[in-house]
Amino acid sequence: MVAWLCVLGGVAGLVSAFALTLEKIATISNPGYQPSCNLNPIISCGSVMKSWQGSTFGFPNPLIGLVAYGALITIGVALLAGFRPPRWFWVGLQVGTGLGLLFVFWLIYSSLYSISALCPYCMVVWVATIVVFWYVTMHNLERGHLGVNGPAAQGLARFHSLGLAVFFLVIIGFILQAFWMFWSTLL
């Protein structure tokens, strides 16, 4: 299952990163360009891309996604083809997805409380990163790759969808809270 999730999450993230890269190139080449994902004052890729958080390391964040999600697809395909990686590989994948998750959490916080805008493509990246991190973690717990193996780890693995649902409910709650004034005008 983790192999398929790496492929599917990687494809979702790669497509979103590619779309954002094209939007960023169009914005750079034509300062008056309005990205196709600018739907209203809240759902606005342009606001996110123009912020300093949109180029955290001095270049557009989607370029990180092109590399990271491409690598994730490759890992998923290799696993589907029968590659049985050693423990160090799984620990490395855990660290990589964990760093991706931390970056995504910071980007979520920035989108909600600094930029005050949501990018639809970015939200696809959030979902892909969270799902892949979660299931890589579940795989590593089930197999004992993280050095943690006991009733708590097995219980968490058994109720994996509940943990993922909590992740997303918390994020949805923060989105509702951050933009409540806007959402309430739509009712």
TrEMBL record:
Keywords: Disulfide bond, Membrane, Oxidoreductase, Quinone, Redox-active center, Transmembrane, Transmembrane helix. GO terms for molecular function: oxidoreductase activity; quinone binding. SMART domains: VKc (SM00756). Signal peptide: none annotated. Gene3D superfamilies: VKOR domain. It is a multi-pass membrane protein. It is found in: Membrane. The chain crosses the membrane at residues 63-81, 88-109, 115-136, 162-183. Residues 1-140 form the Vitamin K epoxide reductase domain. One of its GO terms (cellular component) is membrane. Belongs to the VKOR family. This is Vitamin K epoxide reductase. The lineage of its organism: Bacteria, Bacillati, Actinomycetota, Actinomycetes, Pseudonocardiales.
